[in-house]
Amino acid sequence: MTITMIVVGLMALSLVTYVVSKMSKGLGSVLTILGPLVALLFFLLEGSGIASGSSIGILQFGATKLGWFFSVTMLIVYGCVAFFNPYWMKKLVHPSAYNMLYILSLAGTIGMFFAVDFIVLFIFLEIAVFASMFIIPFGKSRNAAVVYFAMSTFGSFAFLYAIFMMYGKFGSFDISFVLGQLATEPTTAIWVIILMGIAAFVKLGIFPFHIWLPMAHGNAPDTFSPILSGGLVKIGAFIAIMVVAIAPTYEVLKNSYEVMGLPILIYIVLIIAAISMVVGTLMAIKQDDAKKLIAYSSVANAGYIIVGIALNDQLSLSGAMMHIFAHAIASAAAFLSIGAVSYRTGTTKISELGGMIQKMPITYTVYLISIISMAGIPPMAGFISKWLLFQSLASHGLMFIGAAAFFGSVGSFLYVFRPLSGLFLGQLKPQHNHVKEAPIFMVVPMVILSGISLFFGVLPNGLLNFIGKIQVELGVEGITTVDTAIMGNNGLLDPTLVFINFGLGFVKAFIIFMSLSKSRKVGLMDTYTAAEFVYDPNVYHYAKSYYAPIERLYEKHPDIVALYKGLVQRVVDLGRLLQFIFFKTKPGTTALFIVLTIILVLWGEKIW
Amino acid sequence: MSQPILLIAIPLGLAFLSIILKKIKVPLLVLGLLFSSMLVFFIEKKSYIIGGFKPPFGINLVVDDYNLYFIIIVNVLFLVLVLANLSAVKPMATVLLVASAGLNGLLLTGDLFNLFVFIEIASIAAFILLTMDKQFLKVFHYIIIGTLASSLYLLGIVILYAQYGTLNMADMSGLIDGGSITPTIAYLLIFAGLAVEVKLLPFNGWVKGVLETASAFTGPLIGSLYAGVMLVVFGRVFGGVLNLSGTMVTSLTIIGVITLLAGEFMAFQSKHLRQVWLNSSIAQSGLAVILFLQGLHHVAVLVIVANIISKFVLYLVSGKIAAVIGHDKIADLKGIFMNKKALGIAFTITSLSLIGLPLFFGFFVKINILIALFQSSNMWIPALVLIAALIESAYVIRLLVTMWQVGEEGEKPETIEKPTFSLKVGFVTCAISIILGLMLLVSGVYPDLVINQSVKAGNVLSVNDEIQVFTMEGGLE
Amino acid sequence: MVALSIINVLIAMGVALFGFTLQTSVAGVNRKIIGRMQKRYGPKWYQEFRDIFKALSKRGITHGWVFDFGVMMALGGILATAMFMPVANIIAFEGYDNFFIFVYLFAVGMLGMAMSASGSGNPLASIGVMRALSQMVGYEVPFMVVILALVSAYNTSSISGLVAIQQDLGWNIIRLPIGALVAFICLQGMLGKKPFDTFIAPAEIASGPMVEYGGKQLGMLFIMHEVSVFVEVSLFVNIFLGGGNNVIEFIAKYFVVYTLANLIANTLGRFKIDQVITFYYKVPIMLALLQAGLIIFLGWGVN
């Protein structure tokens, strides 16, 4: 199988899915599972040296390790999430369209990762964007889709303008050729870098372009939020890698003013990323909707990815790529577990839930593992990437960025714990007594994703060695590993050792626990209540405004959404004004305008 | 071989006939249009002499790559439009035949004065047709402005005639290229005259009144066919005949840019379906005018083609919706396509093509606009074009999402009740929309034929060997 | 698994056991000291051991599997963290005692405990956990900024590496007093000592994470608490006081640091939780950034 065949095949499959779904929704949704899984199988069988295949017209693809890495990540997410689709067929308003767009957005992303030509890249990028955009309104919000699309289009157009600036200078759309030439045109290059950077920021959801993430991820159908957060935002990371690592950004900027040994532009990017981490964290802490919470956490995590990519050295780039992978898997799993809860209870609001662990223990475990990875705690994959990033930050001595990164990291403990405590732990609401564990085919993909998080948290070196190869492909020194240990700039990390030690500690604790007398099991309502008689589990649960003391500290924060709303309002006002001025029903006015314009232009002719 | 004059003469003749044979005037109309639509496929590309005098002394019709393309599109779509609204056209059959003759004349003529005559014929037909919508005051507004415009145009060509002693386009073009004086005022008057018809701001006071209440018949006719033909004429005059240069180009381009942006701004705030499309048409006209003025004729042609087809479907469907529902307030059109998927899909494809998403024809239009603009080392215009496109994307998507989805903001999908309401739109309308939508889809996947044709068309106006276009096959040429 | 052999593992387990014994004894002694300070007799120095074993021997209640599992995860995570800790010249995993491991592996234990407490179903416990996590946001960031500057300057993030450097250059607390001060304030927060004992609030309120515990769960959390205090204080001793050439020196330094923290705690009142956070984001973070700036830009105290 070649890449061309896979991409074209997926596009064809999306149409087939639509037709099949029209006949049988279930069968169509099964196709959405098979599509990504079969494609994943091909990618894994062929390896990163997969043939690119002959070109069809302008559709030409080139196999790169980077593209393979991104595609496989994406396919794992799409494949696992797709298992949820059959269960949502009844809930969605347009099930057939959903199935079609699901596969189409996948085809768009895969095509984009292997494009050798900027226009092809742009085509597939836009396909992925509009396919996903049409799915979002199937969920809770109609406005979210418009905001998502408008933001995304803003990014795409910045990207498009950059593409054409390069085309104007070098007369080609070939990615490697054009980016290679950039160093010869420093002025153009800086504009290109800025514009493409904006595109990457928008897609990743970096501050101040992050507002679409909570809207879109929080309101998309529960089956699609994991795709958005785990899959599609990573397109931004791909563009960012393209800007920093493939384009000769550091060479272009080598004569610019430097801050802490970094070009000023890179430092500004780091600051923006740091702001994203802080803003994402603070906003996530105060969310009551679990999906919005994870969406804001994606903002914070995007900050880490951008920091890693922008520094573009041995450790940071590998850290960023590891983070892309780890966060994709973890946030997909977290969204899926919340989706599973929503499937059974119909809500994702933390304050409306509680004690789900008693009914859905496997879902709970999946969520636990995914948040451990998201918070960067060993023994999950998220820890490896954070460790690499901190190593890099420390060796650069970037203390302000470091402070933000640490804040984001500690803050993540807070926000990931909020759903854990409020939604899964605590008192079970009486109305959820009948709830059962998620169906088996929803559990399986969640467990697989958790397994992946754990596996690459304990034995990451296979993946890291591959990332090292990607780095070499990108012209950066590859990450080095020895046996199970990872070599950092200023220390070693052996995740396997950490895991074994943790295991030993746990076994010790287990032995202590088991050797002691058995505890008596009591119900959750049988607790210390300071002599108060509480009988209603609904009032005996702490979930509403969980971090009230912290939330109070920044409750009067400025709202960036207001800024965008203001901007939109200005556009509307201007449009109204223009319409008021020019569209009068008085012909005289129009005639006056005509005469005035003629005079004005004539006047210009004379003066200039 | 067939004579293009028949495209004008036959409808005119049938129009007279239809006054006499009132009973069969609708069959006559259909017959005439059918004949025109067949005829266009057999026309040969050359200059036709009418009445025996050789140009520049006699009047002549010109068929070349530039207008052949549009003659086919306009005639076929005209027929299609009439067929789709057969019940509504009965009282207007005669006028429609005149309109057809006028439009064909506008496209075919090789003479500036004849152009004036055809503008008048087409306009008068339009005035009468628009009275179908019962907005007499607004039509009256249009009549006044339209007449003013033709007078300005006439004044312009009078000056030109005094200067060069000819009104034949080809002849005039040669004289202007060789001459040393630029009759600025004449250019400006002609520009103003045509600007009213192509709806440039601030010349377009009539548009809103006329188009915001246009029916499924007058909407496509005025908003798509007339607008397209007028743009073609504008291109013919300003791209092929009058040779603008220097500050004139800059000033007029600024008018185009203002039109483009203002159109999108106004469309963004519009709350009614047809109001959105009319403002969007204004913007697209602005875009085409910018491209003509910048000498990028081949992409201007692409813009016109895409605009004719997409606006045709959009006005048609919007007009039908307004007729069925009784209004076209967007906020009240929630989920209107849910039980009319085929029509909805056609509408969606068309709108997505309008905002230039890949897989649809509009994408290649957008890419080729940018290629052409960057090739001529423009930096600001493409940025503004992209800003306009951004605003356009936002309101089109907002519109589509509203029309496909029901449910309040924040309502969960499983609790949303599907509407039982079904949009009662006839089969013919659906079929037409779907076929045109499919054309946009097919040419979005394989646009090469259309693009190559527009390059040929652009080369008629001014030969440019260095044109690069982006097509599916082989990328750049 | 370069470092993993039976010997290393045994040493590591020894370190953890040593840490537990050391801290429990020191805590007992401290209770005596505080008692004397308050004109009381105070308990025996081994009182803490008694408490723990008493709790372990009692038959308690459980609120479900996550209640128990969380306790095991907490103890396991903290034990694993302690196993990496270099004590004087005893280093179980040379080169792998990375600072970031301590921070994040420690978090496993904390997460386990938090989970267990929330799993008890008592909202008061959840509130306690919320306070503990909120406090964490306060003290972690200034502390880690200081460490980042150190790692950046010495180019090693291994604790034993930092100890070795101090043996050449002298103690960090002398050369970098601002950083040490910040770290000490943060240590106070980590230990949950006044004025930062809001989340446990041992004396006044019967709420906080521990409200539902009794029996072996409580005993195990006591053990976990002692080991975690050992890890926290040892980090300070190793990073700022140059560790120790031998175990006695290490114990001496350890005792001084812990006792000092305890003495300070017993002379102060308590912050409310939002005051804790605002405090940390006023003085310590500024000082931490100042120290980091001095180290990174001017190279003061690290050459």
Protein topology:
The complex is a heterotrimer of chains A (608), B (477) and C (303).
Chain A: H1 3-23, H2 25-46, H3 65-82, H4 85-88, H5 95-114, H6 118-135, H7 143-170, H8 175-181, H9 186-204, H10 212-219, H11 225-232, H12 234-246, H13 249-252, E1 258-259, E2 262-263, H14 264-285, H15 290-311, H16 314-345, H17 361-374, H18 381-396, H19 399-424, H20 440-458, H21 461-473, E3 481-482, E4 485-487, E5 492-493, H22 495-515, E6 520-521, H23 548-553, H24 560-582, H25 587-607
Antiparallel strand pairs in A: 1-2, 3-4, 4-5
Helix pairs in contact in A: 1-2, 1-5, 2-3, 2-5, 3-5, 3-11, 3-16, 3-20, 5-6, 6-7, 7-9, 7-10, 9-12, 10-11, 10-15, 11-16, 12-15, 14-15, 14-19, 15-16, 15-19, 16-17, 16-18, 16-20, 16-21, 17-19, 17-20, 18-20
Chain B: H1 5-20, H2 25-39, E1 47-49, E2 60-62, H3 65-84, H4 93-108, H5 112-130, H6 136-164, H7 169-178, H8 184-198, H9 205-211, H10 218-241, H11 247-269, H12 273-293, H13 297-325, H14 341-354, H15 361-375, H16 380-404, H17 427-445, H18 448-461, E3 470-471, E4 475-476
Antiparallel strand pairs in B: 1-2, 3-4
Helix pairs in contact in B: 1-2, 1-4, 2-3, 2-4, 3-4, 3-10, 3-18, 4-5, 5-6, 5-10, 6-8, 6-9, 8-10, 10-12, 10-13, 11-12, 11-16, 12-13, 12-16, 13-14, 13-15, 13-17, 13-18, 14-16, 14-17, 15-17
Chain C: H1 6-37, H2 47-57, E1 61-62, H3 65-84, H4 99-119, H5 123-154, H6 159-169, H7 172-175, H8 177-191, H9 215-240, H10 247-265, H11 273-280, H12 283-298
Helix pairs in contact in C: 1-3, 1-9, 1-10, 2-9, 3-4, 3-9, 4-5, 4-9, 5-8, 5-11, 5-12, 6-9, 8-9, 8-12, 9-10
Key attributes of the depicted protein:
heterotrimer, B: 477 residues, two-stranded antiparallel sheet, 4 strands, 69% helix, C: 303 residues, mainly alpha
Folded structure, characterized:
The complex is a heterotrimer of chains A (608), B (477) and C (303). Chain A is an all-alpha fold. Helices cover 70% and strands 2% of the residues of chain A. In chain A, the strands form two sheets. In chain A, strands 3-4-5 form a three-stranded antiparallel β-sheet. In chain A, strands 1-2 form a two-stranded antiparallel ribbon. The termini of chain A are far apart. Chain B is an all-alpha fold and 477 residues long. Chain B has one domain. Chain B is 69% helix and 2% strand. In chain B, helix 10 (218-241) packs parallel to helix 12 (273-293). The radius of gyration of chain B is 22 Å and the shape is globular. The two termini of chain B are 34 Å apart. The model of chain B has no long low-confidence stretch (mean pLDDT 83). Chain C contains twelve helices and one strand; from the N terminus they run ααβαααααααααα. Chain C has helices spanning 6-37, 47-57, 65-84, 99-119, 123-154, 159-169, 172-175, 177-191, 215-240, 247-265, 273-280, 283-298, and one strand at 61-62. At the A-C interface, helix 17, helix 18, helix 19, strand 5 and helix 22 of A face helix 1, strand 1, helix 3, helix 4 and helix 5 of C.
